[in-house]
Amino acid sequence: MTGKRVWVAGHRGMVGAAVVRRLAEENCVVLTAGRAEVDLRRQAATESWMAAQQPDAVIVAAATVGGIYANDTRPAEFLYDNLMIEANIIGAAHQLGVVKLLFLGSSCIYPRMAPQPITEDALLTGPLEPTNEWYAVAKIAGIKMCQAYRRQYGCDFISAQPTNLYGPGDNFSLSQSHVIPALMAKAHNAKIAGAKSLEVWGTGTPKREFLYVDDLADALVFLLKNYSGSVQLNVGTGVDISIADLARLVCSVVGFEGELVFDASKPDGTPRKLLDVSRLNTLGWRAETELADGLRTTYAWFCDHYREARL
Ligand code: GDP
Predict the structure, then answer these.
(1) pTM of the full predicted structure?
(2) Residue ranges of the NAD-dependent epimerase/dehydratase domain (predicted)?
(3) CATH code for residues 5-166+210-238+275-289
(4) For residue range 99-121, what is the model confidence (pLDDT) as tens digits?
(5) Is the CB of residue 159 less than 8 Å from the CB of residue 243?
(6) 145 marked ligand binding residue
(7) Which of 3, 13, 19, 123 is the most exposed place for a label (fewest CB within 10 A)?
(8) 106 lines ligand 1 (CB under 6 A)
């Protein structure tokens, strides 16, 4: 990657920011585009910015993202924004002769009832989880675009499917966030208020796998250097935890000692979502950060950035 111009699309998001941090260790030129400078949902703006910058490689971490509630209540944006962003960037990357492009998908692309752990072969073998099917459909289209440009034009466009992510820079707003930042913010506020209990959505029985965002960034750089293929590679830890156990762990990291109250009127989402990461392991990459350690670092970040943590 020495001397190469690498564009991190979406550098202000949790993933993009982690990729920029990781790329500082490489001898490359990191390109970023502010939202005021270019709206990636607009084709002409995206094309002219990319033509002016001439990136050698692109990491597509720009997306409209959110947790179970956001996905379920803003289906139009989850589809429109994500389809436009990926179509604009991938199409322009082909026209400009970008040498390598890495598109980020999500583990929610897989069928709701896929056999666990979920292998890459499970894609499009069954119905999606309804609470996030909008996001999933957009991400599947992005994966298929990478495969189509590879097949028709020989472009080296790859894609990676991270499991549920967390870490510094996450969105802690209760209506938009994923479960870890939501529980962390709730536990923090409950501790400060001296509350007796903390509300956890759903039954607590669903299981999720969580990857620390700096581990993901490391995996993405590894894939840029070492992977060229049409299969959308899974990126995860290979370990999952129930939401109830996760909530207990978050409370212990935050130092909240009250009770958990489960609100079963809120959706559980998919019952289990554990990725099979053996393909990635075989290539030579493995996640390093233990969940408890990653939660501690994330909570320290949250405390330092409490005011601006998109609460
Ligand atoms: P998902 O993996 O797409 O379902 O996304 P989330 O991270 O939003 O939710 C994961 C699981 O955590 C679901 O079963 C949620 O119901 C559960 N959960 C429990 N409490 C919360 C909360 O306060 N916020 C969110 N977003 N999820 C919660």
Answers:
(1) 0.96
(2) 7-236
(3) 3.40.50.720
(4) 999 999 999 999 999 999 999 99
(5) no
(6) no
(7) 3
(8) no
